[in-house]
Amino acid sequence: MKKDALVLFQGDSTSDCGRSREDDHYLGTGYPCITAALYGALHPEKNVRFINRAVSGNRSIDLVNRWQRDCLDVKPDVVSILIGINDTWRRFDRKDPTSAEVFRDHYRRILSQVREHLDADIILMEPFLLMVTEEQKTSWREDLNPKIDVVRELAREFDAALVPLDGIFAAASSRKDPRFWAADGVHPTAEGHAMICRHWLKAAESL
Prior knowledge:
Elements: E1 6-11, H1 13-16, H2 31-42, E2 49-52, H3 60-72, E3 78-82, H4 85-93, H5 100-117, E4 121-125, H6 134-157, E5 161-163, H7 165-172, H8 178-181, H9 190-204
Parallel strand pairs: 1-2, 1-3, 3-4, 4-5
Helix pairs in contact: 2-9, 3-5, 4-6, 5-6
């Protein structure tokens, strides 16, 4: 990343992690904070700044609705997005589904705005699900997989770096129980956040 770059993290609770709404310096306790700290330690001369505008519970439509304020007005040099698990979850806990086609439309809309209004690199992270409950193993996976495919398609379409988190955590779960990485299958543990950070930094090297 270029010197003095501004990196914006966007998404849902997986990225929010208790970040401050008043102080952009407090990134929460998850992978955004770990990533910023480690990148700063490795590349202090770059003076790269990181901010976190993720909001717990958000779906793709929520990003659309707040994209002007929480992305375009911020004018970041790198936009990092992790969204999608709630587009699946709300189908099962609130009977409020989001189809893969609607998810694609929402996601394409915000990425098109980035390309139109900003000179920014993009990092897309797959929504992921670790197999913890029986419902997740059956119903959730059927809903989420097409949305993961959408993120991969959009990464190609918009020339974005891709962090394939679903595959990464699937591979990690062959070595350690899935609950080690995300106790409820969705929200990462400290080790899970560290895993995201590790692979995010690899993706950033390609920018």
